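hiii, so i know i said id send this last week but things got crazy w the move. better late than never?? heres the sequnce for the chain we talked about at the cafe, plus the structure i predicted for it. fair warning i was half asleep when i ran it
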Amino acid sequence: MRINLLFVFLFLAYYAGAQVDTSKVYSIAEKMPLIPQCAALDTTDAAKKKCTQDLLLSFIYRNVQYPDSARLAGLEGTVVVSFVIGRDSMVKDAQILRDIGGGCGLATTYVINAMNPLNLRWVPGELQGVPIDVRMTIPVKFKLQEPPPYMMVDRDTVYTEMDKALAYKGGPEALDQYLKQNLMYPASGNDSCSIGVIEATALVTPKGEVRILEINDFSNLGMDFQFEAISTVTSTMGQWEFAEYKGRAVPTSYPIRMNFYPTAASCQTTISNFETAQQLAIEGSNLFNQESQEEGIAKLDEAIQLFPNNAEYLYARGQAHMELQNMAQACEDLTKVKEILLVGWVDNLLPIICNVKEVTNPEETTSGNE
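okay and structure toks below
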């Protein structure tokens, strides 16, 4: 207790005789920043500080999105972030001091930076009655909950946990054969040698219905190709062995990839280039996952040079850049993916990666403000 009292005495004595430097960012102040609702309480400074911390954490936990990549990887733990409450009552310079990966740190700073556009203002910290910039530090816990065996896609229940998986009668080879026989290349694509992959996510229900949950036109082939893909997939009705969960048939999804190759003789060079690009993309992803990041991205670069508007290649390279904290490049690639696919599954990534100013060393740790 003597040490603490001596520290406070020296701290106050120093600032009592010194002019406040308003260009400096402080980590401690006579009055720490407060959320207005807490500052208005008729209570002690310690209670106001706890109120501020509780409301801040409540705001973060209500708004932070657990990144899909972190969920899939089973990442849990504590992210530590810091940010400055300025003399103007606004938040700035949010930094990640400790991260657990999977985009959790970026998701946290995104929520903190959202306070300004939401017009959530602070009561700034003070020294000698002068408002000052104060850096705050806060830990945010990411904890995975036990998920239910299903998810909701719009109004459809889609089981993700099953005792018996959904299967096409005769197996994947029979499905491939069905697609080869029934998937027709639209004649409208031959003039431009349109080539690419469309992936349809089919919902198969216990009633035998086959519906489309999502369709991804990775090469932006257009409506004629999408219609052909949808028609072919839905025509598989009655050819599935249903998924089961706890002894009963349940609805679940099945991704079906369909290759569209032009049939005109003049398109042979395009077909050859596409097959080369496909191989480059596979090799690039494998190299990156095997810790040969530079070589992997170089292969993906080659594939994208051949087909600049292929969303699969762009998404793979964007994810690679994001993992390496190359946020400007990741933003560029994933923004283009959004423009091509017009789907929402990159929406939660774009605000995070496209607004990052700085990410500190994730190895660095810090303790909270006392």
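btw The domain at 150-353 is CATH 1.25.40.10 (Serine Threonine Protein Phosphatase 5, Tetratricopeptide repeat). thought thatd interest u
miss u guys!!
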